[in-house]
Amino acid sequence: AQSVAQPEDQVNVAEGNPLTVKCTYSVSGNPYLFWYVQYPNRGLQFLLKYITGDNLVKGSYGFEAEFNKSQTSFHLKKPSALVSDSALYFCAVADQTGANNLFFGTGTRLTVIP
Amino acid sequence: DSGVTQTPKHLITATGQRVTLRCSPRSGDLSVYWYQQSLDQGLQFLIQYYNGEERAKGNILERFSAQQFPDLHSELNLSSLELGDSALYFCASSPSSGNTIYFGEGSWLTVV
After folding, report:
1. What is the pLDDT of residues B40-57, one digit of tens each?
2. Does A101 contact chain B (CB < 8 Å)?
3. In this structure, is the dihedral angle defined by the CA atoms of residues A15, A89, A4 and A7, taken in order, positive or negative?
4. Residue A59, CA distances (Å) to A7, A45, B50, B95, B110 in order
5. What is the DSSP letter of A84?
6. What's the CA angle centered on B4, arms B1 and B10, to 5 degrees?
């Protein structure tokens, strides 16, 4: 069975500093990995995904994620954090059975401090 | 705007009642998914439909049911509501051959 772990409930970073939000996964076969962001009282917005290919995936709003197969990780990164990046971030892995539904981590709340 | 439309945005109802949440997927998307987001359970997959047929079932209670209509919109029916059903219910959709799932803004259900 597939699962995702986000070890940090909360990440605080100063504006302008690089940020990292951690995610590790467990899946049989090739992983399909995703990052979504949820702003207050809003739905989930797709940021980026890894299906195959280059281990460094670039997404929306300047975010990128690095797929590391040996460490089974898919950490979300941004070189310079903005206050507007403050939100709840979810890592997810796709169901490998073909149904295509997502299994989400518990989320990490990112706060960017001005 | 993801293109997935959910109604109503907010709903307050009493225990024991029944409600219906409605979802219009993105144009052209054949798959519709329902998720529940609550403080204690996090984001949980409930059920998926593909072109009118049930495709996958997650942690959906027997009191809950869903369907997808020929025009591809979907409804999630929640009955015999309990306080613990209070949550944000998301609908999502994806292309028939794609892997990215796009979410609506959600329907906030409060059971009192």
Report:
1. 888 999 999 999 999 889
2. yes
3. positive
4. 22, 11, 27, 19, 34
5. G
6. 90
